[in-house]
Amino acid sequence: MERLQGQMTKEIGNRLTNSVAVVHPDVTVFYDHGRSGDHNVCQPTTYMGRRYGADATLSGVDIVAVKDRKVIVVVEIEEGGFRPKTMLGDVFGVALADSMHIQGDRYVIEDAVIVIAVVHDGKGKKGEKCGRLERHLARYFLRQPSRSVSTIRVLPCSSEDIVRRIERLVRLELSKRKRRETSSSRTPPRTLRRVPRRK
Q1: Which phi-psi region, left, alpha or beta, contains residue 65 (left: φ > 0; alpha: ψ -120 to 50)?
Q2: Shortest CA distance to 64 belongs to which of 78, 43, 48?
Q3: What is the pTM of this model?
């Protein structure tokens, strides 16, 4: 029998695979804990450097959305509730990585969004602590910028609402990324102003 966490990851990964394909056909979702044999099911693994091997791996992730061999969004499901030590491992397992190994291929990690979904109703001290941890991480990475990570979201969700909220947030982040790419492609390249030669 699968663990509850595996069931959640499987359901969220399956729904994201289907919904993202409709809106963002150029984005692929991979996830762990799914049915063996499905194309999108594997164990995405972060690693140091350019060469993948047992001496370079950092962490396995639950769900990842990729485009053009680049990691865009990483989702970690914390079914066991709010555990800062584990969540920091989730964050830095991506932030300190150079690449991710997915089905034998190398995917570069640059400016990725990390979403940590905590199974919790969001109320009380633990709910407040989720918000504080998210803000603390934002300040930390502002002082210590990471090439791998651009944004970290710590999202408390009830077990009944987690699938819908994660799906909505991932689709939102993908849409924001697409708008930025479209905007930058429309911006004309800057030309250097020629300075007249002195006579």
Answers
A1: beta
A2: 43
A3: 0.85
18 touches 34 (CB < 8 A): no
Q: Is the Cα torsion angle 163, 169, 175, 178 positive or negative in sign?
A: negative
Please give the Cα distance from 157 to 120 (Å, whole number): 5
Give whole-number Cα distances, 156 to 39, 80, 120, 144, in Å. 30, 12, 5, 25
Rounded to whole angstroms, the Cα distance separating 2 from 147 reads 35
How many angstroms separate the CA atoms of 168 and 51, rounded?
34
Contact 114, 94 (CB under 8 A): yes
Q: Which stretches of the chain score pLDDT less than 70?
A: 1-5, 186-199
**Between 3.40.50, 1.10.287, 3.40.1000, 3.40.1350, what CATH number should domain 4-186 receive?**
3.40.1350
How many secondary structure helices (H) and strands (E) does the chain include?
Answer: 4, 8
Per-residue model confidence as pLDDT tens digits over 93-129: 999 999 999 999 999 999 999 999 988 877 788 888 8
Give the separation between CA 110 and CA 121, rounded to whole angstroms.
32
Domain ranges of the chain: 4-186
